[in-house]
Amino acid sequence: MPAQVLPSESYAKNGVVKLTNCRVVRSDRLVEEDIWMSSQTGKILNGQREFFDSRTEPDETVDLGGRIVCPGFIETQLNGAFGFDFSVVPENLSDYSKGLAHVNNLLAKTGVTSYLPTVTSQPARVYQTVLPFLGPSGALRSPSIGAESLGAHCEGPFISPKRNGIHFLSNILDPASGISSLESCYGTDNLQASTTPIKVITLAPELPNAVPVIEELSARGIIPSIGHTDATYEEALAGINAGAKTVTHLFNAMRPLHHRNPGVFGLLGTAPSALAHSIDLGSDTPSAHHDPPAHETYTKPYFGIITDGIHVHPSVATLAYSFHPDGMIIVTDAMPFQTYPDGLYPAPYGSHIRKSGNVLTLEESSRPAGRLAGSSSSLIECVENFWNWVGPEVSLARVLATVTSTPAKMLGCYGAKGCLEPGADADVVVLKGGLERSGRKTLRVAEVWKFGARVHKGDV
Amino acid sequence: RVIIRQEPEAASKYIAEYVVDRIKSFAPRPGQPFVLGLPTGSSPVLVYRHLVRKHKAGEISFKNVVTFNMDEYVGLPPSHPSSYHSFMWEHLFSHVDISPSNVNLLNGMAEDLEEECERYEAKIREYGGIELFLGGIGPDGHIAFNEPGSSLQSRTRVKTLAYDTVLANKRFFGDDVSQVPNMALTVGVQTVMDAREVVIIIIGAHKALALQKCIEEGTNHMWTLSSLQLHPHPLIVVDEDATLELKVKTVKYFKSIETVAKSCGMGQKMPK
Ligand SMILES: [Zn+2]
């Protein structure tokens, strides 16, 4: 009788994976070390403890050939992707969950392992219909879901009609009755402190009652973000003092920077207490001396910025970064198409969208078959852009912080997300850096791991 | 045999290459592993760096290598950044393909420390002894924590550390003497000498006197490494700075030996 050969599955599996021969993003630099993680708990392990204390032999050792290991990307402003728009309610709601599942699946393969599905200014019924689908989805810790929602981002409708961008004017509202205006728009249930599916609300701080609304949202654990706003510097500052933590796509849909009133951009400057006696707007006479206000600690807000090279000039993006490097969050702000005339549009993630009437269809990608719409995501393209814009004094690790540790800190989930310390979720992007003949540095997604399981392996 | 190299880098590289050659010619396999004794300290860091480089270049696998470390502090958890567990993890084990079950370090947290030492010696015996013990020395010529005055026949045991050693180590504990453990578990001089081959790296002028005492003078328990004179296969690799206290004659002698051996195609291989 032949000796019985045990299939490898029958050996005790510990689910431990070791990524080796790689350079790991550690705060401001890349460090040659291994990453140990568990597909059972979905978390990063302390390799030394596993080795000495548990004498763990990893089930799988992955040789990454010197590639870069980075925490999974976090996208804080994505209006839709792959032909699916989070703000469009289909006739049949089951199509919404299908579309969402499709996006999650494909998005993860681009390196975005968590994100805020973003809904633009819509009528109340749209929010109330879609928000229950868009809440945090990480509780199951299931890699097969793909990209994980960290909660919805409601961009509007409490925004300035002067800075509506492509949002429908007819959808834009004033928070005239304070938080109850928001409740009747988003739905009371969707604004309950402990169960809200909403993570971030973009609003204009200069609107009537916006300041108390910002205070109330903060108290409920929803992050107020200043955006689509006509605010002066002072109005923006009032929003920050009320609890707004971040700015939505800095420079876009707000007053342009003026040297006598810098508007929202001024929030990245010196602490206002230091300026209290030196500015007096609207008057040519030197200001009277005021006592500095009671000592307030000023924290510069985080700010999203679209580094696609079109929305913001590279020089302005690097300028903003140099004012507040720890606050910058690169976003794609993938465009919604419903306001566009019929036609063919280049879409994020390498695809094309054909719009005819209310029907949006995803055109076949022209890239080689079997590759995910070019395999490089919009977010990584934006990161690559910015890496090329900054000088050599800004390390790649620092550039990557704009889509990892910084958004995680803004969202209050740093430690679980945005880093690769033991105990963090094992959301990992493996990157390959390169250099084109033109001198342009390139960055490609080679592999993506979600909760300790590989969900993508590309051909770079 | 004493090998002299101009720079610490070259001396370390020599040792790393030597160790790799020895492991390869041994051709270890499961059931017949290569048993390697390992040190901690500043001199071996460069050796480990070269070993890691060679591993990454695919020149050497540690799959069938079993290691025994020389020493560990008492009362320091393995995860403490200044433990020798952490040192070995940082400089070698985390970068190579060694199996965690093949790695042996003394457990300074053991409830019964003496039993732990006996267990360690027994485990070394179980593997049939150590094939090659790699070591460094302190400025006072001590090997592992076998400080001056240790018995040359000593085996693995608990040692109270000399105040000088505690002081020398305080830089690893935030320069706070009170944080430095004052006891350690260490292999004995005899444990090292029982290895079939002993390879010692000595780097820097501050170790020159120790080198001189250990090779130019008699066997003496005040310079514990001097016991190497009685070992059948010792190899000492030093940088130029470490030879400062040696007689010119001694340096010339060892350099000429290496040249002659090379010209005869013998190199410095251990005889089979
Ligand atoms: Zn917008």
From TrEMBL, chain A:
<feature type="domain" description="Amidohydrolase-related">
    <location>
        <begin position="68"/>
        <end position="433"/>
    </location>
</feature>
<dbReference type="InterPro" id="IPR006680">
    <property type="entry name" value="Amidohydro-rel"/>
</dbReference>
<dbReference type="InterPro" id="IPR011059">
    <property type="entry name" value="Metal-dep_hydrolase_composite"/>
</dbReference>
<dbReference type="GO" id="GO:0006046">
    <property type="term" value="P:N-acetylglucosamine catabolic process"/>
</dbReference>
<protein>
    <submittedName>
        <fullName>N-acetylglucosamine-6-phosphate deacetylase</fullName>
    </submittedName>
</protein>
<keyword id="KW-0378">Hydrolase</keyword>
<dbReference type="Pfam" id="PF01979">
    <property type="entry name" value="Amidohydro_1"/>
</dbReference>
<dbReference type="GO" id="GO:0008448">
    <property type="term" value="F:N-acetylglucosamine-6-phosphate deacetylase activity"/>
</dbReference>
<dbReference type="InterPro" id="IPR032466">
    <property type="entry name" value="Metal_Hydrolase"/>
</dbReference>
TrEMBL record, chain B:
<dbReference type="GO" id="GO:0005829">
    <property type="term" value="C:cytosol"/>
</dbReference>
<dbReference type="GO" id="GO:0019262">
    <property type="term" value="P:N-acetylneuraminate catabolic process"/>
</dbReference>
<dbReference type="InterPro" id="IPR006148">
    <property type="entry name" value="Glc/Gal-6P_isomerase"/>
</dbReference>
<dbReference type="Pfam" id="PF01182">
    <property type="entry name" value="Glucosamine_iso"/>
</dbReference>
<feature type="domain" description="Glucosamine/galactosamine-6-phosphate isomerase">
    <location>
        <begin position="7"/>
        <end position="222"/>
    </location>
</feature>
<keyword id="KW-0175">Coiled coil</keyword>
<dbReference type="GO" id="GO:0006046">
    <property type="term" value="P:N-acetylglucosamine catabolic process"/>
</dbReference>
<dbReference type="GO" id="GO:0005975">
    <property type="term" value="P:carbohydrate metabolic process"/>
</dbReference>
<feature type="coiled-coil region">
    <location>
        <begin position="103"/>
        <end position="130"/>
    </location>
</feature>
<comment type="similarity">
    <text>Belongs to the glucosamine/galactosamine-6-phosphate isomerase family.</text>
</comment>
<dbReference type="InterPro" id="IPR037171">
    <property type="entry name" value="NagB/RpiA_transferase-like"/>
</dbReference>
<dbReference type="GO" id="GO:0006043">
    <property type="term" value="P:glucosamine catabolic process"/>
</dbReference>
<keyword id="KW-0119">Carbohydrate metabolism</keyword>
<dbReference type="InterPro" id="IPR004547">
    <property type="entry name" value="Glucosamine6P_isomerase"/>
</dbReference>
<keyword id="KW-0378">Hydrolase</keyword>
<comment type="function">
    <text>Catalyzes the reversible conversion of alpha-D-glucosamine 6-phosphate (GlcN-6P) into beta-D-fructose 6-phosphate (Fru-6P) and ammonium ion, a regulatory reaction step in de novo uridine diphosphate-N-acetyl-alpha-D-glucosamine (UDP-GlcNAc) biosynthesis via hexosamine pathway.</text>
</comment>
<dbReference type="InterPro" id="IPR018321">
    <property type="entry name" value="Glucosamine6P_isomerase_CS"/>
</dbReference>
<dbReference type="GO" id="GO:0016853">
    <property type="term" value="F:isomerase activity"/>
</dbReference>
<dbReference type="GO" id="GO:0004342">
    <property type="term" value="F:glucosamine-6-phosphate deaminase activity"/>
</dbReference>
<keyword id="KW-0413">Isomerase</keyword>
<dbReference type="GO" id="GO:0042802">
    <property type="term" value="F:identical protein binding"/>
</dbReference>
<protein>
    <recommendedName>
        <fullName>Glucosamine-6-phosphate isomerase</fullName>
        <ecNumber>3.5.99.6</ecNumber>
    </recommendedName>
</protein>
